[in-house]
Amino acid sequence: MTYRSIDILNTYTDCAECNKPCYKLIDCDTYQTVSTNNPAFNSYLGSVIKWVDEADAPNYIERCAVVEKYYCRLESYPQPVITVVDCYKDCARCLYVPPRTEEEIKAGRIVKPGYDVPDCNRPSSTSCD
Prior knowledge:
This protein has helices spanning 8-11, 15-18, 91-95, 102-107; strands spanning 21-27, 33-36, 48-53, 63-71, 82-88. By secondary structure, it is an alpha+beta fold. The protein has a domain at 8-96. The chain starts with 7 loop residues before the first helix and ends in a 22-residue tail after the last helix.
């Protein structure tokens, strides 16, 4: 096996470019990694974020991932357009789905009548004729 040597001095113009940080989003469920060099992720280091990839529009899939920093010398990869939905201390809190109440299960819906849906006993301001 032959390894090709790359002179790092000829590859980068300065130390800041050579030591430019990248960020890994390590999925809490599958442990798959998404990498980005967006500096906005520096504020989420060591935390868990709930995020969506804009490429999934309009059927967004919310994912939970740990944010880690690394140095991405000589790497190139597609840059996903990531939107952070929320931030958590750990994966368990991000992945938590609150249980449905007994009323929600019986009604077969999650909305609260009279609050999230129009009241069926009141006349509607719009007509369906």
